[in-house]
Write a structure and sequence with these properties.
Elements (H helix, E strand, L loop, with lengths): L6 H13 L3 E5 L18 H4 L2 H4 L2 H6 L1 H16 L5 H12 L4 E5 L5 H10 L10 E2 L2 E8 L5 E2 L23 E5 L8 H13 L2 E5 L11 H7 L3 E5 L12 E3 L3 H8 L2
Parallel strand pairs: 1-2, 1-7, 2-3, 7-8, 8-9
Antiparallel strand pairs: 4-5, 4-6
Helix pairs in contact: 6-7, 6-10, 8-9
Length: 260
């Protein structure tokens, strides 16, 4: 059993968040682990079982689009059966309570922050609790050749290449609207995230190994402007040594304790 997080550390994190004028939150796969979404690099993570270069690169899609769609179809189904956990809910409440203070930024493609925002907003407007999605969204389709984006994708039949979805505008193959290895991030989304990190007094980093750039640079940006970095993760990461406060524990337990 892991050591409990020292009360002093929890209080320090809560104080930093409570007194900050502006907060940027960076989340990774670990925030969704307690919802049942697999992470990438943990002991049972996706990249321990699957090879990224065969499934999550433009070259892989060009070589074998059926295999890539089969994998994304499996992940879509898995994610559709998951629900937001107390960490997503606490961040959504924090953002809705004072939208000008908080910018949520996620590397996750699972849409769970969106679902938490809509649920917490009730009949109100969830917009300001929606995250900047650095790596796209798995439930959206976009054309592999033109600008077409479908927010409500149809179910994908990956039984053969002939049954894969095609763009109604240009007939090229549709693909999941996610960022693959070797692809650039949307520069407007990245620019908004970097500018939020520059303005933030605190960068709260939840459930990421902090190994994938440029997302992993956001805490450095906040720190280089004199801000603080709070990390929530059961394991030590690339970020832990330089974090102002590093809380060892699960997001579902710790985030609701400090994000109040
Ligand atoms: P990783 O799988 O690299 O890291 C997940 C982190 O979550 C690890 O540091 C775990 O210790 C931590 N973790 C596990 N369970 C947790 C829990 N209950 N609470 C809090 N933390 C927990 O995932 P990311 O850092 O998100 O990119 O990976 C970054 C990017 O690499 C992903 O967005 C994806 C991947 O390749 C793309 O798809 C472009």
């Amino acid at each position: 059993m892991k050591e409990p997080v020292p009360r002093k550390e929890l209080d320090r994190a809560r104080d930093l968040l409570g007194t900050a004028d502006r907060i940027v939150v960076l989340t990774g796969a670990g925030i969704s682990a307690e919802s049942g979404v697999p992470t990438f690099r943990s002991a049972d993570g996706l990249w321990k079982t699957f090879r990224a270069e065969e499934l999550a690169t433009p070259e892989a899609f060009a070589r074998d689009p059926r295999l890539v769609w089969e994998w994304y179809g499996w992940r879509r189904e898995l994610i559709a059966a998951c629900v937001p956990n107390p960490a997503h809910q606490a961040l959504a409440r924090l953002a809705l309570a004072d939208p000008m203070r908080i910018t949520l930024v996620t590397q996750n493609v699972d849409g769970l922050h969106h679902r938490a925002a809509r649920a917490e907003a009730g009949s109100g407007d969830p917009t300001r609790a929606l995250p900047l999605e650095l790596h796209g969204a798995i439930h959206r389709d976009r054309c592999s050749a033109c600008d077409r984006l479908d927010r409500e994708p149809v179910a994908v039949d990956a039984s053969s290449e002939a049954t894969l979805p095609r763009c109604p505008d240009c007939a090229a193959l549709m693909r999941p609207d996610v960022v693959w290895f070797g692809e650039a991030l949307d520069h407007e989304v990245l620019g908004a995230a970097l500018s939020a990190a520059e303005r933030a007094d605190v960068c709260l980093v939840v459930g990421t190994s902090a190994l994938v750039y440029p997302a992993a640079s956001l805490p450095d940006v906040t720190r280089s402007r004199g801000g603080s970095v709070i990390e929530v993760n059961p394991e030590a990461t690339a970020l832990s040594a330089s974090a102002t406060v590093s809380l060892r524990g699960s997001a579902g337990r710790l985030v609701p304790e400090i994000a109040v």
